[in-house]
Specification:
With about 170 residues, this protein is an alpha+beta fold. The chain has 4 helices and 7 strands.
């Protein structure tokens, strides 16, 4: 696997993003979504993210999308306009190869360039240990924890809240 290229998402990336995400919907607690999304769902999400001026990046290796990072508004209230919640997902074949770190670093740089100031990560307390470690390595600090706020795959799940000031 050659070094990944990090770039802004394009229309042609949407099916691959959908496929990556749906893997986690089906098989893990990394997302609390329980219903798979469609490419049309992702196209609409992309339009909302871009309209809000928030970065949405992909990592590709040898022309194949192997991960993505995006932000979404933390709250619809205007006072939160410079605070986002981030999401980062990798194709399972890209895990443990440094792709996540490269993608998150470029995403945070893009957030700074966009004038954003706070990034919040909401990460499941089971099955997402690698994501917690990734965010901590990128300088995210523990900001709190919520217990038993989700139920998926027969498990009661909580979330860790991590925050990075840009």
């Amino acid at each position: 696997m050659s070094a990944p290229t990090i770039r802004a998402v394009s229309d042609v990336d949407i099916p691959a993003i959908c496929e990556i995400y749906n893997h986690y919907v089906r098989a893990s607690t990394a997302t609390f979504d329980e219903v798979e999304s469609t490419p049309a769902d992702w196209a609409a999400k992309r339009a909302r993210i871009e309209a809000a001026g928030i970065p949405f990046l992909i990592a590709e290796t040898d022309g194949v999308v192997c991960g993505y990072a995006l932000g979404q508004p933390w709250s619809p209230k205007a006072a939160y306009r410079r605070t986002i919640e981030n999401s980062i997902y990798l194709d399972p074949s890209a895990a443990g190869r440094g792709v996540g770190g490269m993608l998150l670093a470029r995403f945070l740089e893009s957030c700074r360039e966009a004038g954003l100031r706070q990034v919040i990560a909401v990460i499941a307390d089971r099955g997402a240990e690698a994501s917690i470690a990734l965010h901590r390595r990128a300088g995210f600090a523990d900001a709190g924890r919520l217990t038993d706020v989700g139920h998926k795959l027969g498990l009661e799940l909580g979330v860790h809240l991590l925050q990075k000031s840009l």
